[in-house]
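As the next step, I wrote out a protein sequence along with its fold in token form, included below for the reader:
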Amino acid sequence: MNIFNKRPFLIADIGFNFFDIAQKEGISDIDAAKLMIDEAKSCGVDAVMFQSYSLKNIISQNAPAYWDLSDEPIDSQFELFKKFDKFGRDDFKQLSDYCNDVGIMFLSTPYDFEAVDYLDEFMDVYAISSSDITNIPFIEYIASKNKPILLSTGASTLKEIKDAIDAIEEVSTVDIAILHCVLSHPTFYEDANLLMIKDLAKNFPDYEIGYSDHTKSDENMMILTTAYNYGAVILEKHFTLDKTLPGNDHAHAMDVDDVLKFKDNLNFLSKINGRINKQPLICESATRKEIRRSVVAKKDIAKGKVIEKSDITFKRPGTGISPTDVGDVIGKVATVDILEDTLIDFEMLQ
């Protein structure tokens, strides 16, 4: 079963970026989040994603940074996430309602049990972070809500992915999408390993495959486009309105222009992909006749002569007897004089 009714399904991971947008624009945090929702909707994004947690539930004070410090100079997970531990159930409910009004899907990745519970009130699909792929009790709790799950697989082995899927299916029959992801922020292009998308499809053929991208947006959005070409039908990428803002998630995010480029790529792919079944096309009909070959007299053939292999050759155009039917020509008797270089017709033979 498909979790979403559109392929590809594009998710703009707003995450915490709206806090920085609020500061830049001089507006409230909630208004900045709504502004980013509006912008995501305007460029054709299918869903927006946030992150829901309470700091005390997820990070110890001595957890070190895992991001590029040149983009985000704070070297403590606790101190960074403390900055963003502002929104709770009522705030995300307000954003969910706003998404419904705008016509875009609301998603938020829960990072603790409390968030799982309150998101269940107004969210239809759960996302499980790569950071929780071995957190089996947490995975089972999310699965108990019996809603479709997007499972990110950054830094995971195939066994860890299978164990997570087994944990979900022990308590639920929900649809699961498996998302290739690289836990490197940002991910260098040479580390993207998009071919792993094909490997996931090979190893988990009964599940939808997606891609959660942490690379910096390339000029032509070829990373996401290639991921889709390789079989990722659910695509997620951080989203910002200003890539120049400090903070790691702005540096490797896409903006409105990037989304529009990606949409142009999809339109072009749709144009060039065409039919899946190999067959002659209408645009080939004239050329098909003109550049194929026909059975042609290699020399003058007198009336009454039995046609031999040495009497014929094969030349363009392909409007006469096809070389595939040469067996129906050799051994026949010429009923008229046939001049050299003439396309032989069955009416000339007996």
User: Anything to note?
Assistant: The two ends are 61 Å apart (CA to CA). The chain has a mean pLDDT of 95. Strands lie at 9-13, 47-52, 105-110, 126-128, 149-152, 176-181, 208-213, 234-238, 294-297, 312-315.
